[in-house]
Amino acid sequence: MSQLLAQAEFNQQLLNFLQASPTPFHATQTIAEYLSAAGFVELDEAAAWDLETGKRYFIKRNDSSIIAFVYGKKELLDTGIRMLGAHTDSPCLKVKPQPELNRKGYMQLGVEVYGGALLAPWFDRDLSLAGRVTYKTTDNKIASALIDFKLPVVIVPSLAIHLDREVNNSRSINAQRDIVPVLLQFAQEQTLSPNFKSILLAQLKQQSPHITASQILDFEISLYDTQAPALVGLQQDFIASARLDNLLSCFVGLQAILQANDDVSSLLICTDHEEVGSTSCCGAKGPMLQQFLERLIPDTETRIRVIEHSLMISADNAHGVHPNFMDRHDENHGPLLNRGPVIKINANQRYATTSETSGFFHWLCEQQQVPVQVFVARTDMGCGSTIGPIVSSEVGVKTIDVGVPTFAMHSIRELAGVADAHYLYQAATAFYQYPEAIRFV
User: What UniProt keywords are attached to this protein's entry (predicted)?
Assistant: First the structure.
């Protein structure tokens, strides 16, 4: 298969994955479906494990984080573990616990901002609702299910320029007041707002008739843009979609571990809550990965020795140099779209890259004829961070931070190059197939 054809097929699968994954819950469910179809066996964290070499497993936590593991046939001390990490969450608007607002005959929903969202693009978009609901069954048990309205059911209308003449000169957005979405308009005789939980219950029964739900107890619901992911540009050079940061990396890691070498051990971890600090039971700063490794290798000394022969790729999108704002980048470190994955470096350890891990990734990409770029933030500007430094400090594994260059990071619709996700997939696949322990001598 030609490189361009392989890239096109990969990107179409990526678009399908993005469309199926409006929330971290749905992304985790979709990843689990891929893994199950490929023969990975789901483990219950509450049960005892009896893992066998040569087998493939996965676990989920909170329905929003997932670890996939290929238990290699060779001894762990001989090969170490190849790890790749990404995160399932993206900045968005989340519905408040008691969201009902009745204003001038319109029902609106109170929302709060999750993560460092770019707010302006949320106006005038066709938005839907999705997430997880916890409900009481008709036989008085508690259960949870995923929910997705799919159709555009909410919108945040802009204020007309006639009522805010200076909007194009100086506009600030108040997160409490200005981004309250409209859900419906009441009939003239209607005076009370519908209860939002009753709306969720009706939707749950409609999309899942087999579920015997009698009451919604609580919910974690996010707003998302219904516009489908697409290839854009006159030559279709770009991928436009919500949640490229960081579902693109999750998909790359997923597709790569499906091709992993059965002789060596490989691990993919996709965690929730990175955009708000990763501090949760299922976040990268939580115990999920550490507990998995402790159950896999109970002996502390052996575990430390295996980790010393291991390496993690922390995959999270990078800032491509924007042609309208070139001065926001260091002049020697402005990654371009469609020119390959980016190694991210920061002297203050906002990224976990070292010269050794960077050298290994350069070498790995060279073997696959994958181009590589480097990003360093301007010295007078701060930069974001990733799960890389967190996992590296919590687990002790050598780590490199890499990612696909993008525009409009944290917008409701981000932009990446059509070549870069496939480039990163090629590098990640080669990483999972690397047959030896990763040693630096």
Answer: Aminopeptidase, Hydrolase, Metal-binding, Metalloprotease, Protease, Zinc
Give pTM, 2 decimals: 0.96
Structure tokens of 78?
A: 């001989």
Task: With beta carbons less than 8 A apart as the criterion, state whether 112 and 175 touch.
Answer: yes
Tokens matching residue 66: 């997932």
Tell me the DSSP string of 368-385: TT---EEE---TTS----
β-strands 414-417, 405-407 pairing: antiparallel
Helix (H, G, I), strand (E, B) or coil at 290: helix
Per-residue DSSP letter, 324: T
Number of H helices, E strands in the chain: 10, 20
Task: Tell the residue number behind the tokens 């199926």, with chain if given.
Answer: 20
342-392 pLDDT tens trace: 999 999 999 999 999 999 999 999 999 999 999 988 888 888 889 999 999
Q: Which residue has the higher pLDDT, 188 or 210?
A: 210
| Domain ranges within the chain, ordered by starting residue | 3-90+242-433, 92-225
Q: Retrieve residue 24's tokens.
A: 């971290």
d(CA 375, CA 392): 20
Task: Check whether 441 has a pLDDT greater than 80.
Answer: no
- Report whether the peptide linkage leading into residue 246 is cis, meaning its omega lies within 30 degrees of zero: yes
Q: Does domain 3-90+242-433 have CATH number 3.40.630.10?
A: yes
The CATH number of domain 92-225 is 3.40.50.720: no
Q: Yes or no: say if 180 and 110 are a contact pair by the CB < 8 Å rule.
A: yes
* Residues 423/336, Cβ–Cβ less than 8 Å: no
Q: Dmax over Cα atoms in the chain, in whole Å? A: 78
Burial class (CB in 10 A: 0-12, 13-18, 19+), 47: exposed
Indicate the residue type of 406: T
- Shared fold status for 3-90+242-433 and 92-225: no
Across the chain, mean pLDDT equals 95
Average pLDDT over residues 304-329: 94
Place of tokens 């901002």: 113
